[in-house]
């Protein structure tokens, strides 16, 4: 008996990912914390090689393109295990943009997407700006047609993994060139190689977490790219971003479940061993109740996340996907934050030390209530659809 009915194949994938995390990644957590998120190059190369050999790398991409071809549920199971390790060490299991193969040209597929699936290239997203975070439509970066080229201008913030990527997806609003554009004011997304003239790192802010992947502020100043770098058509850019958001929100929910499981495991083990006033602290009702609440919330978040993934595999309506991915991210990210806070409290003074897993997760999980849409934005999305569809329309 298990808490969720998974197939034998699903269980095998889950265990394969768990073994990789436990045996290869978790042992490097403290080293990474003490070295700005970095681990030795040979260890990093080994992790990449094993991720490929185990069929975890590019798990979300079609098998015919060299990807893992996993179902959404299977990707959720893997992401949950990746969530059990701190310091972004799990990012060695990369998921390229699954939305891309259906919309890119054959040339773009060969130049950017397939090499990314093979691990030879790495992408990042240049979308967020100082005045445009949750409100993506408020971006002020521009895309102007000039003959056979587009000219890009704007300053992007939080360009995650810019330092480890070699190309980005730049999103800007179309403005008139020499000729008026029928799509002026609409969004466009373009492939941009990082060695293109006009790209400049403005600064690299320090963040609460200790990740090797940086999130710099990047300026695009009269950056020229061929018209052939346009993804899809002019005006399509926002749709690609929303599809990426849906996927990332579900995977964040999964990773939060993994983090919460690790925290409950570690905090329970400590509470059974830690003796104060002549008895293990788990025998104190206050401690026991924190653990019980954490496990109960984890179970609820996991059931929500797994079931949503299965529904997506079964062809769930896109608008329902959008709403339910928001619900899953909202609940799981806030659940994980509560679990992390309780774990720090259970560990006491040790829970405030960076060598302690609870302290690292306490810092790292905080951003899951912010990136890919804040908790407040998720609530807005859910409330809007509730008003339009009603309870049964959203939950059946």
Keywords:
396 residues; alpha+beta; 10 helices; 47% helix; globular
Could you characterize what this model shows?
47% of the residues lie in helices and 13% in strands. By secondary structure, the chain is of the alpha+beta class. The strands form 2 sheets. Strands 1, 2, 3, 4, 5, 6 and 7 form a 7-stranded mixed β-sheet that branches. Strands 8-9 form a two-stranded antiparallel sheet. A hairpin with a 2-residue loop joins strand 8 and strand 9 (279-280).
Rounded radius of gyration (Å):
22 Å
Percent strand: 5-15%
How do the helices and strands follow one another from N- to C-terminus? HHHHHEEEEEEEHEEHHHH
Secondary-structure-derived class: alpha+beta
Contiguous runs where pLDDT drops below 50 for at least 5 residues: none
The average pLDDT score comes to: 96
Shape: globular
Q: Helical element count? A: 10
Roughly how many Å apart are the termini?
A: 27 Å
Helix and strand topology:
Blueprint: H1 8-25, H2 29-34, H3 41-53, H4 72-82, H5 106-117, E1 123-126, E2 142-146, E3 149-156, E4 167-175, E5 187-193, E6 199-203, E7 217-226, H6 237-273, E8 275-276, E9 279-280, H7 285-313, H8 318-347, H9 357-364, H10 375-395
Parallel strand pairs: 1-4, 2-4
Antiparallel strand pairs: 2-3, 3-7, 4-5, 6-7, 8-9
Helix pairs in contact: 1-4, 4-6, 4-7, 6-7, 6-8, 7-8, 8-9, 8-10
